[in-house]
Amino acid sequence: MNWQEIIFWILAVLALLCAIGVVTSRSPINSVLFLIMTFFAIAGHYLLLNAQFLAVVHIIVYAGAIMVLFLFVIMMMNMNADTEPQKSQLVRFAGVISGGILLVVVLAALKKADPALMSEKSTDIGLISNLGKVLFHEFIVPFELSSVLFLSAMVGAVLIGKKN
Amino acid sequence: MDMPVNDYIFLSLALFCIGVMGVLIRRNAIIIFMCIEIMLNAVNLMLVAFSKFHHNASAQIFVFFIMVVAAAEVSVGLAIIVMVYRHSHTVDVGLMNRLKH
Q1: How far apart are CA A34 and CA A23, in angstroms?
Q2: ipTM for the complex shown
Q3: How far away is chain A from the Cα of B97, in angstroms, using its nearest Cα?
Q4: Residue B65's closest CA among A159, A18, A81, A144?
């Protein structure tokens, strides 16, 4: 077991435990903090996969922008564990069973697959210069379309959020 | 120094199923949103693993676009949740059933 596998398993266990914490914790603030930990673990996985640019963007976008938005809304609504709505035990049991069955079915389908190794060569595709070349040569139209999407999302959020 | 890609498939599959369970068992609309974010990130992780496996940068560009769309989706979705909360003073998805009647 080399250092890469050790770091992989530490990050995997951290991500899974924090994701379970998001689902099970009663207070929404705790859920947000667990989700931030999950995002940092996933950013560690990106670094392990040599996707440095995506790791940085992931931290900035998710932990920096989206989670701040979630925290802001939760604190504005003054939610805590006492006002948290709960589903009945039967519905929870059914939800866990159906999610677990999905996991087991796909796991059983993929278990027989041959373990394919990711080789170490040409590990510089995740650097910002290579990604920039690919983005601005092959994907320039979706890139420009995403700016229109952002503009329409901004207009929509302002229109929905403002008092009539 | 090589990692099998199967480990990443299993990890992202487990994260995706945790997200599915969260959507099914929680009633708070904001927590359901967070579980959708977990599912999106599971898919992103799998795409990055396959990007390294196939030496192809297109998958990482695709992950970049997924992050862009997720940011736009979260801003609009939270605006809708705030509007619903202002209207009915709850974020319980079991009580948002006006369209049913």
Answers
A1: 9
A2: 0.91
A3: 15
A4: A144
